[in-house]
Queue: 2 jobs
Job 1
Amino acid sequence: MLVPLSYNLRSLWVRKSSTLLTVLGLGATVAIVASVLALQRGFLTMFTAGGREDVAVFLRPGATGEGDSMFRRDLGLRLIKTLGEIESDARGPLASMECYLAVLAKKTDGGETNVPLRGVQPETFRLRGDEIRIVAGRSFTPGSDEVIVGRSLVNRLQNTHIDDVIVLNTTPFRVVGVFEHAGAFASEIWGDLERFMPTLGRYGPNRVIAQLRPGTDLAALSARLEDDKEVPAKVVTERAYLESQTLVFGTALLVLARVLGFIMGVGAIFAATNTMLASVSARTSEIGILLALGYRPLPIFLSFQFEAMLLGLLGGLLGCVLALPLNGIETGAMNWQTFTEFAFAFQVTPAVLAEAAGFSLVLGLLGGALPAWRAARLAPTVALRQG
Amino acid sequence: MMRLVWRQIIGHPVRSLLTVGAVLVGVFLLCLLRSVVTALNAGVDAASSVRLMVQSSVSLFVSLPISYQARIAQVEGVQAVAKWQWFGGYYQDPSNFFGQFAVDPVQQFEVYPEIELPAEQKQRFLERRNSCIVGDQLFEQFKDEWQIGGTIPMIGALFPHPDGADTAWEFELAGVYHSSSGALDNRTLFFQWDYFEKTADIEECGVFVLKVAPGADVTRIMAEIDALYENGPQKVRTTTEKEFQRQFVTMLGAVPLFVSWIGGGAALAILLACVNTMLMAARQQVHDVGILKALGFTDAATFRLMLAQSLSLCCLGGASGVLLALATEGYLVGVLGTFFPGYTIEPQTVALGFGAALAMGLVAGLLPAAQSARLNCVQALRGA
Amino acid sequence: MSEAMIQARGLTKRYQRGGETLVVLDGLDLEMQAGRFYALMGPSGSGKTTLLNLIGGLDHADEGELVVSGESLDELDGAELAHWRAANVGFVFQGFNLIPVLSAFENVELPLKLTPLSRAERRKHAEYALELVGLKDRMRHRPKQLSGGQEQRVAIARAIATDPKLILADEPTGDLDRKSADQVLELLARLNREFQKTILMVTHDPHAANSAQSVVRLEKGQLQGIEDNPAPTARSAGR
């Protein structure tokens, strides 16, 4: 015989101020955990979006990213010309050399940051197809001192509007267009590889990318190139490459969410326990009546446990409501792997909300355990006398 | 009166412990988060005013010809110039993240007088071409694997060993240093420039760190050095150490702000919990307050009674939270050192912790105290 | 006749309940002498407890004058009334009203903290009061560790700790068994007899009222009369 649920609902309603304060406290906790999770989610999606399975990234063996990778120009060319696994179209192999450098740039708010500068070849655009879309102006003319900037950089950095001039070392480059990309490229500046290399004193590209023929065995290719005498290289899919780049910051965010969740969760459980204890002690005589009516301790335990979880769930809902407005808000953060800043948005996905709500239920469950146990353990005579 | 306060607190041990626990957690978190933020700024705050950094004006990752060193040293007011090159390697696994720099050993000690190490270790580092020194925090992390006089194998991710990318660079550990200033962390490995230059066959260097003569005009020196290479081949940018350090902080973007938000949210959640607890405590003590008033205690006295309970609980929780933060400082330096090498609990952080606890106690106690003071003792006695 | 301890003129007290005004005391005139033991009787709702609360300075009257122990209570504000209570009145309640978290000794010491007495003197006074009620050996116990009768005797010790002239008791035997009740009544009578305390005890129990020297009867907020009791029982039952 279970205690009617309406009893719990009424009890929460009768103790409005206490219920409200508890729910607010739980809500703040859940909101913070949810927002860190949303940040992590946004970071991962942003970074790995557009990472293709059929595109391979070639790096110098031992390099952890394109920042510390380097090929001699002639060797990069040889790689593209000789690899049978690379897909071709009528105009030649779908492969491109790219140079990459984190350059100093002034933010619009006055600070300084590192922004990725990528020198590409025309093949890059053929390989990317629709992934890169010019949303304002035009693309740069090969061989000229022109650049296009990623959409996320406009408004974040100085000199990123069309017709602005970006000076690299001693050479001025003109901004001629703005491009959009679903992934991290939207936080980069692109120009012609052939113009960037001499300007920056580089002798070769940082990496080679290539679209692979369907059915290519990447593991075999990788093993073969690793020991290649002429052009040793490390090969990974673009997706795997991007995932490796998110390792440090993504993990840091996840750890932050867990640690915060744990510490704040402990505090929230203490608070919930206190609320429920007071609620039980104020209802001692009611519990006595329930016991006298013939209710068994277990249903009474369940009843209070349910009430605590209801408190938790209310807090969770509030937390989700508080975290929702963050959805889509863009922020900048540094990618530790490349030391560059890039923009991404909070993503309050259903998964994030579900995790936050689950977290709040656990808080309620743990917070209600002790008080519910106390309530169930009361002897009817004692409980009635104390009323 | 204080005896009654304590008796009320001890009289409800579970409630009191839970409240103290909640405040403890909140204050601990607050201290932790603030220390993380101060750790980010440690380099900026501790920067020396007599140190300047010369870097490429384009990027931290663009190197400068080493011939610049001699030219810069001639600028009037410059006392010493040290080469710094980011090595970008790793020990055993890329996740073992710490800084490694090739430096001019003699000039390094001139430019950074805060580097302290035993004279014989310093001598050994100066004398042995393939030797290195590491910070004490870093040494602590690998103390089971490293020993002075032993070898530290480093994989050169950025500068592969000429014998192959899989071949490790081997540095002989000459000594363990301690930096007494936040401008230089204690988690870095420094090794000899000459060894680096010969092995990697490199004639470029990332940054020149220089020390200016006491009383020299820093602004003039910066302008003069920048003017030297205005037209190339590599344009340089000379900044104060503070500016140089700040660029790493601004790169973090909104992270410090975000961390502050979290701290604020945590404090708010705990505050709400405390208000709730104190209201409950006041409700349970209505009858007691009625008795006190009948005995002749004034409204003001019962107000103080309630406020004192709240303050006592919160201060107890705050003190425990601060103590926990201090006690875990050493451990967290090990855990967080990778990202926050300057992690330390500053006196201001301790003050913030106590201040927050005190504020929580005040705010949480005010409403219940006012309720108690307003209580009509006839109704209070009857209501029980 | 000795001097008056309590003088009330046209004392009126009203309560608002559910939009209706309830007249609890209706122009009550009353005079009680110092050094006597009074029982205050009357049916439920006759205003006994209200009168006791007014006399004890726990509440203000709406109209009328009330002089207790030479002080016009209606001229005192909240804080002054609190100080006056601390110095002049001792309360004994039906529900004992001890503070559960404090020991017997600490409960008795509580009103002494409102006096300028030193710590040692407070200790002496509290111990003496507990000795008087026969509970010195239980002074370290918490209220929950005492029987009802013992709790009430601790409450009486607390009421007399500051040596007030007036003791107000509201149904002091209402929650007690006959044996404990008799002990409490005897104790009150003894305080009156040996220490000349003026005692006003609200009760509905004729047996309890029998130990008083006079019985004051209230009905519908008005005085019905004061009868002297020629042979109070507790007096003859005295040691």
Job 2
Amino acid sequence: MTTEALVRVAFTVNGAPYDLEVPARRLLSDALRHDLRLTGTHVGCEHGVCGACTVLVDGAPIRSCLVFAVSLEGAAITTVEGCRNAEGGMGPVQQAFQECHALQCGFCTPGFITTVTAYLEDHPAPTAAEAREAISGNLCRCTGYQNIVAAVQRAAEIKWGEGA
Amino acid sequence: MKPSPFSYHRPRTVEEAVELLGALGEEGKVLAGGQSLVPLMSMRLAAPAHLVDVNHIPELDTVAVTAAGVRVGATARHARVEKDAAAYDAAPLLRQGLVNVAHPTIRNRGTTVGSLVHADPSAEMPAVLALLGGSVELRSTAGSREVAAADFFVGPMESALRPGELAVAATFHRPPPRSGSAFVELARRHGDYALCGVAALVTTDHDGAVTTARVALISVGPVPVVVDVGAAVHGTGTAFDTERLAGLLDAAIDPEADIHATAEYRRHLAHVLAARALTEAHEHAGPTRDERAS
């Protein structure tokens, strides 16, 4: 087997700069997990359907299994590891997920945490229907979603003042 | 579920990109948002030898509103077009279609021009372009050419783009004054490909009576199916005759059966959704801002 050519790419993950040399076909999800050992990002379907691998690129949620790492030259990436609060404890979304019991097996949770973290930036007080729409691209096979919807609303309260 | 190896190119200008594509010919494939291409590659349904990544060409990341309409650059994400207030003002159907494209997360990366070039017969944006009219600008080392919306969609997953060409932008025409539009679709699950979807564009006279009415349907033919349904407008100009509408649609569409729906069910959906879209579009049609002010 011939060795694949490596391509150089530089980006930041959770504020830390990285300069990588990876095969061009390396998906961002695999680059995060295998090259950077940031295993908080979970890989589910690997074709953009389940949402488990969602990370933020320049603040916006994207599927890390649907982008090549080399395409993200210069990007600022945030994974679930970067969704904690300034003191290093749980961020508002993580705290709300714990309070509302919004996870069971936890496999899909990193994708929900990143998606909701970005969503709350411009949606300080989502209704239950809006919360449901916000998480419509993320699949959870355990919970039935009720507690996740509640957690989205609770996270908004924590983040935007009331009940912090 | 990993793509096969390929050679990667990261041009910084359009000139550099078309040089590369020209040299690579059939071997080269453009990578923009990748939200259709990457899963196809992961499933090994596509295995291009070379990818030309156009995401690092600043001049392609544009949304510009002109008197003629909305010009969308090759790397403008769906989300950006969807949220652009001026684009919505000029052609509301853009946003009305875009909110049906997959999920917000996909729209953050996927591009509108990429969706046009991909030419999926179930995709929303080809129908929006087909209905509004407009064109796609293609660039190669031989020069530029502009393909009209009506000629751009050739067949399922097949556009007029030739090897060596880069789609640099698409222009969606601004609808005439006193027009209204709507996009309705039905999918098994939220964000899935539509079993059937209908974009509608209705123009009225000063009294609100319908003067022209057209629809574009997805998932019921090899390309977006545009149908002039003006003959289904009631004499009063205020409503649509559903039976005449169904007749006009049946003459144009050719739905196929698959695991998700029978052809007959898709035909039924086309009738129901077209009536719904036309009614909604008519509600949105009305006097222009200047007419309201006077």
